[in-house]
Amino acid sequence: KRPVGAPDRSLARKVTKVGVIGAGLMASQFALLFLRRLEVPVLITDVDQARVDKGLAYIHEEIAKLEQKGRLDGDAANRLRALVHGTIDKAEYADCDFVIEAVFEETKVKQDVFAEIERIVSPEAILATNTSSLSVEEIGSVLAHPERLVGFHFFNPVAVMPLIEVVRTPQASEEALATAYAVAKDLRKNAIGSADAPGFIVNRLLAKVMGEAARAIDEGTPLMTVERAFAPLGLPMTPFQLIDLVGWKVAAHVQDTMVSHFPDRFHASANLHALADLPQAVEKDRSGRVTGWTKDAQKALSVGSSP
Ligand code: 3HC
How high is the ipTM of this complex? Predict the structure, then answer.
């Protein structure tokens, strides 16, 4: 096996324009981070203009908040506003040197996106996926040049979580990896190298914790009791607060991936899916903050009624 660490930094390509594919919860957060830290043009697209506008609105709101807090002066805020552009026209990726996607978490969807993007970008452009747990190698198998694709996995909330997982496929070029590490450094994040294994490193650990919390519910323990049981562990969030933060559908998806690869090691919870399917889970997906709706969620479960 090849080592997963950082290659020679001198191989890193210069990034003068970033393309973000998708304008959802994660994509709009890291689009903002690229703007703030790299100060280069950032392009975002999505499948329709409404989604693009929602992502842009989030970015503009956050820039305004940073300005109000005094973390950006007026000139810097205006510079960032001028650097971000949203469209549904993918042809505009043509001059991006680093293109990262955070679209729907399904291999086929991501493959279609990259196959299309590869025809548009220059041969030197580096491609990255923010997938939480899918195989980066499989996503890149549709590319004419899979060596240019790396995993570049952010954590929620992107502005404060210090880590990025850089995922190395067997095909990944040293240039692609060096660029990914250099970009992570410019974003002021700690990059850790991961093999292209299901769940990489962090989600493998988290899926274990979340899976055991879900298993407790499946066994009949009320959801709020599980939450209270975790409090003495001193973690920044309880398991269901964390699931609420990352998004219930994302959490259920990560769990499915882990169960499908390691059925003997991870727990499949129907209750986790039931919760992910609640309308509240979808509505709150974008909040990015703990919403406290776990009490409502408890009522929707078939087991356990009071803490
Ligand atoms: N966006 C921007 N900034 C945010 C934010 C957000 N959504 N949420 C919190 N912050 C900032 C606050 O502004 C504050 O910054 P300041 O001190 O400079 O003003 C700082 O974070 C602390 O926030 P608070 O004081 O309001 O709240 P807490 O002290 O309770 O911290 C937390 C909030 C940082 C979210 C903390 O609870 C935490 O670390 N939780 C664990 C999060 C985690 O584990 N994330 C990984 C999830 S896994 C994942 O994303 C992978 C995916 O593939 C599933």
Answer: 0.96
